[in-house]
Amino acid sequence: MLSLPPVQKLLRQLPAGPAKPPVGGDTAEEVTSPTKNGSKWLKMENGNFFAPVWYRHDDLKEMLDSNKDSLKLEAMKRIVAMIARGKNASDLFPAVVKNVACKNIEVKKLVYVYLVRYAEEQQDLALLSISTFQRGLKDPNQLIRASALRVLSSIRVPIIVPIMMLAIKEAASDMSPYVRKTAAHAIPKLYSLDSDQKDQLIEVIEKLLADKTTLVAGSVVMAFEEVCPERIDLIHKNYRKLCNLLIDVEEWGQVVIINMLTRYARTQFLSPNQNVSPKAEAASLAKRKPYVMDPDHRLLLRNTKPLLQSRNAAVVMAVAQLYFHLAPKAEVGVIAKALVRLLRSHRSVQYVVLQNVATMSIKRRGMFEPYLKSFYIRSTDPTQIKILKLEVLTNLANETNISTILREFQTYIRSMDKDFVAATIQAIGRCATNIGKVRDTCLNGLVQLLSNRDELVVAESVVVIKKLLQMQPAQHSEIIKHMAKLTDNIQVPMARASILWLIGEYCEHVPKIAPDVLRKMAKSFTNEEDIVKLQVINLAAKLYLTNSKQSKLLTQYVLNLAKYDQNYDIRDRARFIRQLIVPTEKSGALNKYAKKLFLAQKPAPILESSFKDRDHFQLGSLSHLLNAKAVGYQELPDWPDEAPDPSVRNVEVRGRASEGVQTPLGKEKAEKPFYSDSDGESGPTESADSGEDPVAWQGMGQENPSEDEEEEEGAKKAKKKKAPPGRKSHAETSSEEASTSESSSSGSDSGSEAEAKRRKAVRAGPGWGQRRDTWTPCLHPPTSLLVTDLEGLTLTDTSLTPAVSVPHALPGMSRDPCPSWGLQVGGSASHTPAPRPRQLLSPAFGAVRTYELLHRMAGEGLSVEYCFSRRPFPGDPHMVAVHIQISNNTDAEVKSLRVSEPKLLSGMRIQEFPEIERLAPGDTANVVMGIDFCDSTQAANFQLCTHTRHFYVSIQPPVGELMAPVFMSENEFKKEQGKLTGMSEITEKLTLPEKCRSDHAIVQQVTSAANVGRVPCGADNEYRFAAKTMTSGSLVLITLEQREGAVAQLTVNSEKMVIGTMLVKDIIQALAQ
């Protein structure tokens, strides 16, 4: 006998007759009830309703007809559990709807849950209970009132529209916010049933928009978007209230409100980036008034920023799109960190986020550059995620990080995912197109892939190489010859067609190979794919026009084969080409222009991102995800040319505090820890693409425009820091309300942090000077070159011991010279000459070039110059020593000169010079600061501050200053050079001018362009130099070989491909001078 399940055994042991329920009835664990067949049922515990049902549900109707509420409750729980599992319970509708009048609250709630699900399917039966639903609208329990309205709005019958409208109006005035929320949900249902009710529904929406509870806000805004999104006037009076309530609304409502406010702001405020325009509009910009952000615009940005910390990915994405579409360029970077955090979420979330990041990274590349490694691909990622990350990495590629990205791509090519490998090869082609300096390197790498065992890798490489060769066909005839040999092995149709197109297009570069390729293709013509056949016909036509002696018969043979091909496109093409290229009596005038038609110069293809044109869709929307306009999508409005009247958002209230402009208490404090200014809106994330030079603001005699907001914050924090007189912005003086609204702007945090740092530096000032005096860095060392040869080479010049003067000590400083920090104040004071404590012999110590950091006009009499002295920076070998000369050309004393708020890219560091307490009129101060540029030529941005002014300045190093000389033997040089081949080697030919052909001149020019050391070499016509990058210690090897006449070949070997490429350019430029 088969064993029964334990529960069935238990049922068999139950008594056959009816039994009285135990005392307590409803709370009993076991209840029996007679059924038609005499079987019994066991009441299940609450946690088991979703367990597989092994018994039939025939007794549910009898349980619903029972007089016991406990049985009805059990039946409803089982029915709702069936619905949750996807089972069809519509046949129970008549039995359930009778219990809508049950007095038990728990039963009634479950009945309403059932009716909401099936009321639309069983409309006739639901109509029978309309009177019961109307009574439910008057129930004292708010959940019952809301459920009754929900069921009523789910009955899709036009005849009850007046009843629904009356119910919605009554619910909109209900005391319970939950019922008012349900009324807002019912509005779109009624509108879809009868659009003629729009005017009355708008009145209800207007009433609910004035609701001050967070529970209603999201629902009514959703109703507004569904019914009357064009009625912007309904939002005016409620704008500030919605902004302030936003942080307390439920997550679903936050998404809806943020999307609505994004479109609202695009119609009511001016673009914050209107002054960032092409040069062609310089005249119109001059006439335009200076931009001042509307206080309500700032209110929206400030109140949405804390939501970037939300645990809900949809909320974070909504805030990110709001900032991307509405925020000033310098503040958009705050969203990058939040979006990168979402990449650790579920795959579906990653897919949507990466779609939006790919669009953002095209226009705002610098925003995501610090998080480059977050987009590296993992082996566990699905193919779609891999391809999207690859898209982002390609968009972020620039001259600084291309070497890292290309190394990453090299590992991706070995993946087993063929679609991903193909996408990687296409990404390498895009990098080569966008960054000309690595084009040859990428091309060489792709050519190496042609020997790969995988045919798909070879085929994709051929297609990409074809596009790259169109840019410089004359320089790569060898590659075309190499690809012609692949026609015997490659079987992928697209790759074969690409090779044939290349040979036909540039047949003059391979005159001996092209006819032979046509001969081979003619043999296999009938077995080729259609796309290959078309290219064979094109190749035959081009060879007939350029080399008819060798290819005339072959061309006729191919055209005859094509004439009877099964594909009509190929037959038509063959007949057309025969009439066009073979002159006959019937030939028309086109025969004369055959060469122009076939051999016309074709433009090189532009490899662009597929996300380039997606930004016209609102980010985060379904239309953006699909790249097609979805049903119900609302276009993002353009910015207005002139700002609409801001007074429409003013609300007449009794007290000023309730105007809705002030930030709720505690919001600003919660904003700072997660997104401080070090990585937030004032961070370096926009430095790469902003197009605004921080120094450019100096020419206007003022700081960055965002300081207006900082000064307004300073007015609020007057006890901590007093703002300098005479610098109030227009927004500060326009109205009291404007200053109140902008008092919590993003600049406030950075201002308070800078003040704290400055006070700390002032307190630490005497500590710096107690044991340190100053020495004068040689800003203008001798221009003659020092060349040291380790194997008997002569010393060209030894006059390299500059005199160093030590001035009188500043207050609080002793006269102990310390080479680690330079600080000299020059002027009318007497100077005591002193010998330098040690002499630095550098083989690359040539003429030092000075650069202007701050012009005296922009600095209001304060001028600053700097140079790279190529001396090691004490205390940190990874830093570049930068000597700075500060001159006071004013009639007043300058106090408290210091560096503040450095804006550095990820990995860069700065060692500030100690604060100069005072600089007398006409005096000059020389200081030294250290900067770790992280092997990058990106600028280090910081503020040069005095006691009254702040100047935005930046120091950008030439690539030759990012390295230090290395001395090695000839054998070591050759050994290391052998390790750095392939993509790590850049070779260029050049012509040396007559004045730059001597040993002395060549070495002098090379060492002036780069801080490198001479390596001994046995050959007379060869020069070798070596250096290491300051940060990573990567070797940089330079070889210059003189050939016949003035021709020379320059070779640079380095792991850092971008540094190598830029160094080749700089050395060639130096040798050509």
Automatic annotation (TrEMBL):
Residues 717-728 have a biased composition (Basic residues). GO terms for biological process: intracellular protein transport; vesicle-mediated transport. The keyword Metal-binding does not apply. It holds the Pfam family AP3B1_C. It is found in: Cytoplasmic vesicle, Clathrin-coated vesicle membrane; Golgi apparatus. Residues 736-753 have a biased composition (Low complexity). Residues 13-37, 637-779 are annotated as: Disordered. The keyword Cell membrane does not apply. Residues 770-938 form the AP-3 complex subunit beta C-terminal domain. Gene3D superfamilies: Leucine-rich Repeat Variant. It comes from the Eukaryota. Its main location: membrane. GO terms for cellular component: AP-3 adaptor complex; clathrin-coated vesicle membrane; Golgi apparatus. Keywords: Cytoplasmic vesicle, Golgi apparatus, Membrane, Phosphoprotein, Protein transport, Transport. InterPro entries: AP3_beta (IPR026740), AP3B1/2_C (IPR056314), AP3B_C (IPR029390), AP_beta (IPR026739), ARM-like (IPR011989), ARM-type_fold (IPR016024), Clathrin/coatomer_adapt-like_N (IPR002553). It is a peripheral membrane protein. Subunit of non-clathrin- and clathrin-associated adaptor protein complex 3 (AP-3) that plays a role in protein sorting in the late-Golgi/trans-Golgi network (TGN) and/or endosomes. The AP complexes mediate both the recruitment of clathrin to membranes and the recognition of sorting signals within the cytosolic tails of transmembrane cargo molecules. AP-3 appears to be involved in the sorting of a subset of transmembrane proteins targeted to lysosomes and lysosome-related organelles. Belongs to the adaptor complexes large subunit family. This is AP-3 complex subunit beta. It comes from Strigops habroptila. The gene is AP3B2.
